[in-house]
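Progress note, sequence design subtask.
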């Protein structure tokens, strides 16, 4: 028992000297463990005479408490030190990208959509949005295609029953729009001229091969004012194709054509180089049809509630998917809609590259190849 004071001093010193949690644990075991110094003394109590034993037991218990107290104080200090050391050394750089690689891709159709909106947006066009399920008035009748008009056969239309509980009635049925031209009418119904809109969206026809899918995308364009002429149409579309293909010059020609809703009607071709292995837009030995256009037919203006004696305008319709195939060299349209992530990885665009007329449309850096 004489040793008690020196033992206590020694253990408390060791506790203070423990430099980390591991050595503190060792000190604890050496004192209070199964074979620890204090434990051994406890065991020795049995050999003492009864009155000595009571006094010694008390002293040992006080010692034990003191040691436990000292350990827990020391432990708190060491834990705090360890945490501070961690915080000082383990820095997190929050400016690093969240992943080593950008995972997502922008689909070529979305990219082209963005580019077309950027170009016409800068020319002062608004973007109009309309329904995929269309009535026959907007998809056909108002566009100068009354029932039984032969031009309805030009498009392989998907019809929808007007009422699921009644027998199918061709005249009353709805369609999933075969083109975005119905948006010409919807725009005239909701806006007063001057009108300058584009209407991008999904369109549907019963067709399927390397360049046709049952669902595809078009952009409709409509300009109506008192003095709008075919010269405006030509200038506008020429500026569009140059901006879109990111070329300073590009040969274009307009071929006379027929659409019931425009008069005169034309198809626009752009110059291209066609070889067995290559299709290059811009110049060369051949022509490529890219869109249909014309001056809005007076009957269409009338159907939209606009006086054809006061106003005139032009319209055009262009296939977005086809533009994507041409600009980015994608050979088969069907692959656009197969949701194959390997395809998307190959043909998709970086989500961080936004198309703008000032910052660049495709940027070409945007192509992750
Ligand atoms: N709607 C026509 C088509 O789908 C394209 C077009 C639009 C033609 C506007 C002239 C004017 O083929």
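Output:
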């Amino acid at each position: 028992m004489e040793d008690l004071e020196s033992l206590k001093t020694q253990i408390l010193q060791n506790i203070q000297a423990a430099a980390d949690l591991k050595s503190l644990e060792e000190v604890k075991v050496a004192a209070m463990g199964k074979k620890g110094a204090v434990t051994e003394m406890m065991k020795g109590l049995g050999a003492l005479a009864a009155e000595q034993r009571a006094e010694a037991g008390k002293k040992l218990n006080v010692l034990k408490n003191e040691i436990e107290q000292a350990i827990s104080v020391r432990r708190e200090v060491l834990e705090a030190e360890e945490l501070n050391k961690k915080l000082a050394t383990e820095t997190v750089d929050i400016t690093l990208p969240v992943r080593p690689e950008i995972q997502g891709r922008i689909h070529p159709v979305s990219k082209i959509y963005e580019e077309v909106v950027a170009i016409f947006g800068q020319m002062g066009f608004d973007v109009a949005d309309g329904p995929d399920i269309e009535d026959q008035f907007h998809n056909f009748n108002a566009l100068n295609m009354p029932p039984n008009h032969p031009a309805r056969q030009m498009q392989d239309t998907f019809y929808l029953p007007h009422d699921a509980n009644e027998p199918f009635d061709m005249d009353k049925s709805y369609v999933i729009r075969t083109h975005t031209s119905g948006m010409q009418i919807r725009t005239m119904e909701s806006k007063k001229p001057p009108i300058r809109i584009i209407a991008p969206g999904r369109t549907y026809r019963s067709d399927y091969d390397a360049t046709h899918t049952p669902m595809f995308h078009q952009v409709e364009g409509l300009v109506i004012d008192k003095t709008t002429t075919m010269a405006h149409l030509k200038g506008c579309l020429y500026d569009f194709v140059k901006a879109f293909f990111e070329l300073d010059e590009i040969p274009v020609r307009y071929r006379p054509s027929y659409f019931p809703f425009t008069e005169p009607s034309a198809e626009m071709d752009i110059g291209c180089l066609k070889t067995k292995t290559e299709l290059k837009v811009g110049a060369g030995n051949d022509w490529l049809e890219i869109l249909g256009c014309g001056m809005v037919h007076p009957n269409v203006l009338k159907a939209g509630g606009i006086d054809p004696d006061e106003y005139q305008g032009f319209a055009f319709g262009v296939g977005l998917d086809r533009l994507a195939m041409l600009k980015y060299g994608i050979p088969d349209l069907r692959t656009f809609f197969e949701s194959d992530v390997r395809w998307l990885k190959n043909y998709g665009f970086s989500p961080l590259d936004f198309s703008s007329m000032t910052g660049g449309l495709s940027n070409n850096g945007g192509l992750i190849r």
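The two ends are 83 Å apart (CA to CA). Work on this subtask will continue into the next period as scheduled.
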